[in-house]
Amino acid sequence: MPESSPYRPTPPETAVTGAARIALTYAVLSAIWILFSDRLVQALTADPGWMTTLSILKGWAFVAVTATMLFLMVRRLVARVAQREAQFRTLIHTIPDMVWLKDPQGVYLACNPAFERFFGAPEAAIQGKTDHDFLPKEEADFFRQKDREAMAAGGPRANEEWVTLADGGGRILLETLKTPMLDPSGTLIGVLGIGRDITEQDSHSRERAKLQAQLFEAQKLEALGRFAGGVAHDYNNMLSVIVANADLALFRLGEGRPEQKYLEEIVRAARHSADLTSRILGFARRQPLDPREVGLNQAVADLLPLLERLAGEHIQLVWTPGADLWTAWVDPTQLEQLLTNLVVNARDAIQGPGRITLATANRTLSERDCAAWMEAGPGEYVELQVSDNGKGMPPEILPYIFEPFFTTKPKGRGTGLGLAMVHGIVRQHRGTLRVDTAPDQGTTFRILLPRAGADVPPLERAATSAASSGPGRSPGP
Fold it and tell me: Fewer Cβ atoms within 10 A, N terminus or C terminus of the chain?
């Protein structure tokens, strides 16, 4: 053990001083008693018999006085020690953290009530025993190893430990500090342990990290949206010129001319490009909205024939409308685009026969619930759920699925704009969404749209400001 340990206590000089004071007081009083009592006996009588009797009485009186003095001194000393010990135990027992003391062999010497919960036993039953008497061997060996590390280091050692409380069976994360205890001569006498429950702080840290990740993702998508929206508008203007001139050339071109088919291909390609531009604008939240109160149950029911054709004959489309559903504040055209994109995405995730389920429900988010959703705020929403029993998605690609042009589909089968458009539509409506998926477990998209009349920012104003990006820029060719 290092001789220069900063944790070695100073010698108890006050105890030595107190003992010396008691001994000196006793010696002085005894000398005074002997001197004056002998003179008193000589003055009272010269008879040897009486002198012997008085000397015996004097000795008894000396013993009585000495015993009384020692009793008073020792009682005062013991009372002080008992008071200090009571104060110390009150302090230790009041501390909400777990506190315990072991000897160098790992035998428990003392603990407080908070630690008693760990073993589910009172202090009297814990004293004299080791971790192996209460815990599985692997866990007890781990704690013993941490004790040895603290003793070998000669100073405090901190670590985090997941433990299960015997009193109640709860599992908590402990931040443990173990410090070697030395006597005045520097000899190791034990290990002091202090354990603090940081389960809630750990949960808050993980939740804060999750929120920070969501914020970063939102900022990244916002930047991508601005860039994509600017490019789409410029591209849209050029498409308008191409389509207008191609239509004019077709109008002036006579029937049967060989150039007609080339112009028709130009128009067809331009209109297809215009559709891609519309999707990019949807992701960028630059499409003008026409929101209104919409009953989602009726809206989805009206779209079922279209959605069934999109799903295909080998995929069963199951519709589960929610009871007493609130009306949503949504643009019906954008709702149709959202649903068709989600159903197509679900269809492509299913290899062979499968099932797509559509469902609606009322949903109220609290502040605590918002952490599980993207850019969510507390309030009342109408939930639209689209689930499939397809192959699902691995967790490593989830951060990218809403980015434009990102796709896991084979080349030529997807543009990577479907989910980006879904994300843009939901954000433009001041809604939120969540994806639950796992490999071979299917995927569920949960869309929350604001309840009509709920306290949300006016969508028309947001849509108008987002759509107006300069003169001469039209939303479509």
Answer: N
Most confident of 80-94, 200-214, 248-262, 309-323: 309-323
Task: Judge contact between 111 and 123, C-beta under 8 A.
Answer: yes
Last residue of a domain, one of 77, 93, 109: 93
332 belongs to a structural domain: yes
Mean pLDDT of the region 235-240: 75
The DSSP code for 134 is: T
Which DSSP symbol is given to 276? H
Tokens for 217? Answer: 């993702």
pLDDT at 313 over 90: no
**Which of residues 64, 93, 122 is at a domain's end?**
93
Cα gap 115→117, rounded to integer Å? 5
Q: Say if residues 457 and 317 touch (Cβ distance below 8 Å).
A: no
Give residues with Cβ within 8 angstroms of 391, minimum separation 6: 349, 350, 351, 439, 440
pLDDT at 360 over 90: yes
The domain in which residue 37 lies consists of: 13-93
- Work out how many domains the chain is built from and give that number: 3
Nearest Cα residue to 291 out of 463, 476, 465, 474: 463
Q: Is residue 473 part of a domain?
A: no
Candidates 299, 307, 369; CA nearest to 334 is: 299
Pairing state between β 157-164 and 188-197: unpaired
Tokens, residue 166: 């015997």
- The CA distance from 339 to 447, in Å, is 10
Cα angle 24, 28, 32; round to 5? 170
CA distance 457 to 466: 14
Total H helices, total E strands in the chain? 11, 12
- Closest to 459 (Cα-Cα) out of 450, 468, 472, 470: 450
pLDDT tens profile 186-229: 888 889 888 888 777 655 666 666 666 666 666 665 666 666 66
**Closest-CA residue to 152 (of 100, 120, 188):** 188
- Cβ neighbour number for residue 7 with a 10 Å cutoff: 12
The tokens describing 390, both together, are: 């397809």
Domain-embedded: residue 73: yes
Q: pLDDT tens for residues 163-184?
A: 777 766 677 788 888 989 888 7
Q: Are residues 22 and 131 in the same domain?
A: no
**β-sheet bridge partners, residue 450:** 381
Question: Quick one: tokens of 431?
Answer: 């809604």
Residue 362 in domain? yes
